[in-house]
Amino acid sequence: MSFDVEKVRADFPILSRQVNGRPLVYLDNGASAQKPRVVIDAVTRVYEAEYANVHRGLHFLSNLATENYERVRAIIARFLNAPREDEVIFASGSTEAINLVSYGWAAPRLQAGDEIVLSVLEHHANIVPWHFLRERQGVQLKWVEPEADGSLPAEKVLAAVGPRTRLIAVTHMSNVTGTVVDVGAIARSTSVPVLVDGSQAAVHMPVDLSLLGVDFYCITGHKLYGPSGSGAIWIRAERQAEMRPFMGGGDMIRTVTRDAVDYADPPLRFEAGTPGIVNQIGLGAALEYLMSLGMENVAAHERDLRDYARERLRSLNWLSVQGDAADKGAIFSMTMQGAHAHDISTILDKRGIAVRAGTHCAMPLLDFFGASATARASFALYNTRAEVDALIDGLVFCRELFA
């Protein structure tokens, strides 16, 4: 199917509003994406007509909610082309998902002196859980720096693997620079388990877990046009068998007595308590919406935006773009001499343009680039070339104010 961006934009109610008397130009998608009508309607429908707690209930609404909720596991598996839907574990997002692996898989297995290989590209969600193991168990973090252009060759990550490496934890796409990492090449070239933070990549390009060969792959719903508090992690069945439960409570057990507990089979073993029922159903609606558009079509549209934005940004010789690698998503982090990133963001906001300013939960990467903060414009499937032009005009206006 062809990709009609104006038709797509009509699916997102918020895009018709104005901010500060200007049409909204939403370029903060790397933080969180807007929601299409089908997601809003799905969430509303559940609360208005279908809500009940899931599992174990024998009444009509509970059975209906359980069916709709569990159906999302299959939708996620289809979206990621995962081998098995029971390898999909629900989480509130990538942060909880990575902490699940840190506590449930890594903590019982790693000893003082064991190594985890990390890249400097990582979001704090894929750094701090491993620092917990460094602080508490003496695990060593082995850092891999990107190239000057922000790229991260697979061979550079593999070169950091040693005899005591127990895990490689790496992003699939940087939330700061958009750099795409060939995680499949990494996973297929080592026997060390590989965890991939797919929070950004799954939004912007097709992901095929049957080909990548990784062991853990997490997604977060609010970036995928779904509700906040939704997400999942795919964990290979062999790795699930090596894990202990992350949290204890209802739904993750078979039986509990005064003297013992018998845990449920995965994935329920790792899903304690009443889950984010409505949020996950909304995520299912978002993923079905994306699949109806076709992720190849989404990726092609965003490549066009990336190339156009890159060309226009390069014409501004007073602007620095950090990590503009050849293979990247439509994410641009920028600095301007004489203007703080917060000033840039504030001035753009007055023109209705939403960008993010700060460290983007990636302080090691900003340190690598020698920047204390950047202004980040991150594009999505509903953005247009005209919005790129609006961004450029806004940046020129900033420059004139600070010249």
TrEMBL record:
Pfam families: Aminotran_5
Domain Aminotransferase class V, chain residue ranges per copy: 25-391
Alphabetical keyword list: Pyridoxal phosphate, Transferase
GO biological process: cysteine metabolic process
Alphabetized SUPFAM superfamilies for the sequence: PLP-dependent transferases
PANTHER family: CYSTEINE DESULFURASE (PTHR43586), CYSTEINE DESULFURASE 1, CHLOROPLASTIC (PTHR43586:SF8)
Function noted in UniProt: Catalyzes the removal of elemental sulfur and selenium atoms from L-cysteine, L-cystine, L-selenocysteine, and L-selenocystine to produce L-alanine.
Protein name: Cysteine desulfurase
